[in-house]
Specification:
The chain is an alpha/beta fold and 220 residues long. The model has no long low-confidence stretch (mean pLDDT 93). The chain starts with a helix and ends with a helix. The strands form three sheets. It has a three-stranded parallel beta sheet. Strands 3-4 form a two-stranded antiparallel ribbon. It has a two-stranded parallel ribbon with strand order 6-7. The chain is elongated. A hairpin with a 6-residue loop joins strand 3 (90-92) and strand 4. The chain has helices spanning 4-13, 32-40, 57-60, 76-88, 114-119, 125-131, 148-163, 172-180, 186-200, 213-219, and strands at 22-26, 65-69, 90-92, 99-101, 105-109, 169-170, 205-206. It contains ten helices and seven strands.
């Protein structure tokens, strides 16, 4: 919830690859067999239910950027496949023999300590060093309060558009509260707060009274 995907999208948007796809995948959300298919695709008949050929995220992201979120949770088998993509820039679909070449920038993110995972034998050291080229530490939102007004106004614009509202800004009282609040849920909590407030606001400014009840209790 610290905004890892937002940073990855910004890297993509400011790069020479910005006209090509940006693909994001949460590696922790899928079991190994489904994750392998999502990443590398599969051929028709490669497993029960594979009634058609399917392109994987790497193939779809060719020329662009792929974000692999929660990389620390992938299985040893997937780690081997991923290492090959990094080293050889090629892979085969699940159940297939065709070698598929790809040119993809890989951005990975995790909230785990990968060096500790290596010591536990759960993450390959060679894969770690292939991935850890330009590390970016993204602190929690409470550690970078200067980002709060920027993100809040970004989300205000987003949810104004989605809800056909024309809210101009935040009251000084509301923004002061945002700056002092700890945001335990990080950027995700801030975004949810703005969405809630935009839906309920009845004036041109987000007021304290428009915030979710749990935040209003913190204010009191």
């Amino acid at each position: 919830g610290t905004g890892k995907e937002l940073v990855a999208r910004a890297i993509h948007a400011e790069s020479a690859r910005h006209k090509d796809p940006f693909i994001s995948l949460n590696c922790a959300a899928l079991p190994e067999t489904l994750l392998e298919s999502e990443l590398f695709g599969h051929e028709k008949g490669s497993f029960t239910g594979a009634i058609t050929q399917k392109k994987g995220k790497f193939e779809i992201a060719h020329g662009g950027t792929i974000l692999l979120d929660e990389i620390g949770d992938i299985s040893p088998n997937i780690q081997v496949h991923l290492l090959r993509v990094l080293q050889e820039k090629e892979f085969t679909r699940l159940g297939g023999n065709e070698i598929i070449k790809v040119d993809v920038r890989i951005v990975t993110s995790t909230n785990r300590d990968l060096k500790q995972r290596i010591e536990e034998g759960k993450f390959r050291e060679d894969l770690y060093y292939r991935l850890n080229v330009v590390p970016i530490h993204l602190p929690s939102l409470r550690e970078r309060s200067e980002d709060v007004p920027i993100l809040a106004r970004y989300f205000l614009k987003k949810y104004n558009t989605e809800n056909k509202k024309k809210i101009s800004d935040f009251s000084s009282e509301a923004m002061d509260f945002f700056m002092k609040y700890d945001w335990p849920g990080n950027v995700r909590e801030l975004e949810n707060t703005i969405e809630y407030s935009v839906v309920l606001a009845k004036t041109d400014f987000i007021q304290i009274g428009d915030l979710p009840p749990i935040l209003r209790k913190s204010f009191q």
